[in-house]
Amino acid sequence: GDHLQTVYRFWLVGHQLEHGEAPWKDPYSFQPIVEPQTVLGGWPFGFGFWPLEAAFGPVVAWNLLLLGTIVAAGLLTYGWLRCLELGRFGAALGGLAFALAPYRLEQSAGHLVGWVALLLPLALLAVERARVAPTPARTHAWGAIAALAVASIALSGQLHLALGAVPFVLVYAFIRPGPISLAWCTGGMAGAVAVGIALRYTVIAGSPEAATRSLDEVDKFSAEWIDFLDRWHRGASEEFVYLGWLTPVLALAGFVLLLRRQRALAVLLGAAAAMPILLALGTNLPLYSEVWEAVPPFRFPRVPERLLPIAVLALAALAAYAVGRRRLAGGSALVLVALALAVLPLGAAADDPGNRAYAALRASEGRYLDLPVLDPGNHLGAVYDYYALQARRERPAGYSTLAPEEAVEFVREFTLADLERLDVRAVLVHGALYGPRDTELARRFLLDAGFRRVTSDGAIELFVR
Fold it and tell me: Residue 292's pLDDT is what?
């Protein structure tokens, strides 16, 4: 799964820094076919992964960070809502609803959308703290945090989420009087736009993703109305958009109450809740196809649900307003919301630390290749990313939906002559990805080509030239 790719990119940050290299470069994948690739996804969590991985290994580091993002999402939302003068129970309800939001949790299992979503309440909290800071220095410090949080959404590679999150934070800063915080958020928006444009014309350009998506691809990942109420949805994870049954009801009540007190904030939160939900329907929404044709940004993402973190944060905030300062109602609502949102989107995955075949690989020289060779966009290639932590060697293949065309052509057309030309001296055969028949064919091919079998561990066998 994609969690393996994410672990690899988190690991690269510390690995590169330890060697005095840029933490956003991948010196191993697709080498030496293309220049070292700029990788997205290491910022900002890779810097927290670095010491944890050094101390406990990648598996524990991943789990600690994942659980930490759940806690952080709740605490940041709680802190933001307290700044809006909500009671403790109301703010706690909002924090709980965002921390346990099923879509956010589901998209934390491998994708970074659920992780990066916590930057939203961080930005809003910083805006509020900048408004009431007692000194100019603190005002600018909180304003800088807001700007960095906004820009980091794009820096993390979540450009689809940034399309909605950046204007949402900017409008929020506009309606909450504070010229300094607004100026900082404007700077953060400019930074996010600059990052997006730079990535578009460097990393994305020249890759298969440079072309716009087809409407058929969007249709494949579009949610249906019933999905918002389906707690046990099966199928593509992107279509798991369950919102709970109580949070939307409380949010509607909170919207009505807030509309009487702070109309601008109510309208912003209402729109932030409604628009991503409607867009998540994709081609199941009337006129979506026409909008897709007319508005260029719609033609690049293939998953229309990726703006939902904005909606679940807005729903959580509106639900908090429904409780307000009512302690008894707040305590009961906390329990009921937790029960209504309770899902099990995360599960255990097998790991394989210290694989003997990869340990033996480190004793050989030259580059290596994993078999079967997979298309760079095939998610099964994330298995190879995980084992790359143990190999730490150049390899002409890799896993990236943004792989340059040269790397894609190599994978699809490589021959034995290419292995000799690229100095590939070791090959690892992954029988679990091949199946028995093809594994045997791969063995024969390698033996006939002058390789010898060195060792194996589980379903992985090492052959060297």
Answer: 79
**If you count them, how many residues does the chain have?**
465
pLDDT digits (tens, 9 = 90+) for 146-196: 999 999 999 998 888 999 999 999 999 999 888 888 898 899 899 888 988
Q: How many Cβ atoms from other residues are within 10 Å of residue 51's Cβ?
A: 11
| Pairing of β 424-430 and β 367-371 | parallel
User: What is the Cα–Cα distance from 45 to 25, expressed in whole angstroms?
Assistant: 16
Q: For 116-265, list the strands marked E by DSSP.
A: none
Q: Taking Cα atoms as reference points, which of 159, 162, 129 lies closest to residue 146?
A: 129
How many Cβ atoms from other residues are within 10 Å of residue 420's Cβ? 13
Using CA atoms, how far apart are residues 240 and 233, in angstroms rounded to an integer? 6
> What is d(CA 172, CA 59) in angstroms, rounded to the nearest whole number?
38
List the one residue out of 96, 119, 238 whose CA is nearest residue 168.
119
pLDDT higher than 80, residue 399: yes
Residue that the structure tokens 């927290």 belong to: 48
Residues 275-292, buried b or exposed e (16+ Cβ, 10 A)? bbbebbbbbebeebeeeb
User: Structure pTM?
Assistant: 0.91
* Contact between residue 113 and residue 153 where contact means Cβ atoms under 8 Å apart: no
